[in-house]
Amino acid sequence: MPAKVNLQLSVGPLRDDGYHDLVNVFHAVSLFDEVTAAESDRLSIRVVGDPAGQVPLDESNLAIRAARALAARAGRSYGAELVIRKSIPVAGGMAGGSADAAAALVACDRLWGLGLSREDLSDIAADLGSDVPFALLGGTAVGTGRGEMLTPLPVSGTFHWVFALADAGLSTPAVYRECDRLREAAGERAGWPALSEPLAHALRDGDPKSLGRALVNDLQPASIMLRRSLARTLDEGREQGALGALVSGSGPTCAFLAESAEHALDLSVSLRRVCHQVVSAYGPVPGAVVV
């Protein structure tokens, strides 16, 4: 299951349920976690990989919650040993936890022989979190509502990315609260968000230069306010020739669009001089699948 980068994240006003109406253009990229589901008489979870120590193993883990929700939908008590091999940054704004949840749904559905449709799995996914349905779908899509109502977007070709990873995460609720605070302090009133036509056209035409100019994230000022070093990272990427630069989702990962795979390699080398960790990827790629 892939990580995602938000090409557009437009945040509307705060709703009565505590969420914001969003226009969220998701783009799945080639950084993958792997979830294995094996037979067991109870549900358990184990995480391997470099960031394993940062992943919770209790009921707050989205993969465990996904497996329990799937069993509840089937109306039976099931067990499984879930093993997550992490490559997606933890708490990096790239939806690694949501990707793990989507993979757990697909893996446990196969293990338990339930045979649920993707639509049924998506219904369960939407109850788990706003990013989980896209982790099932993959590709490139615009999410509305909380981000869970998805419409695929046409994309030509492949886009190449470099991601600068931070050494600590940012709280998504804290970033949204800071976004609201900054708007209130500036006397701004959030309008109804809409899909960016220049961004949609750039994706359809496979034009990285136009896409770089169209990238937008309404949460970026709030993320930078909470982590001032992000501004320096973004500036460094732009100075090194990135076609576009933005904080991915609520951060703190910074995403840089390159003109080609070769350009991404050069950009990675330059950013490694100033960043904690740098990885490159391409997109779009498919969502969670059985391998």
From TrEMBL:
Limits of the GHMP kinase N-terminal domain: 61-139
EC number: 2.7.1.148
Catalytic residues (positions): 4, 131
Residue span, GHMP kinase C-terminal domain: 200-275
Keyword Nucleotide-binding: yes
Alphabetical UniProt keywords: ATP-binding, Isoprene biosynthesis, Kinase, Nucleotide-binding, Transferase
Catalytic activity: 4-CDP-2-C-methyl-D-erythritol + ATP = 4-CDP-2-C-methyl-D-erythritol 2-phosphate + ADP + H(+)
Domain of life: Bacteria
Enzyme class: transferase
Pfam families named among the record's database cross-references: GHMP_kinases_C, GHMP_kinases_N
InterPro entries given in the database record: GHMP_kinase_C_dom, GHMP_kinase_C_sf, GHMP_kinase_N_dom, IspE, Ribosomal_Su5_D2-typ_SF, Ribsml_uS5_D2-typ_fold_subgr
Family designation: Belongs to the GHMP kinase family. IspE subfamily.
Record's function text: Catalyzes the phosphorylation of the position 2 hydroxy group of 4-diphosphocytidyl-2C-methyl-D-erythritol.
PANTHER family: 4-DIPHOSPHOCYTIDYL-2-C-METHYL-D-ERYTHRITOL KINASE, CHLOROPLASTIC (PTHR43527:SF2)
Protein's recorded name: 4-diphosphocytidyl-2-C-methyl-D-erythritol kinase
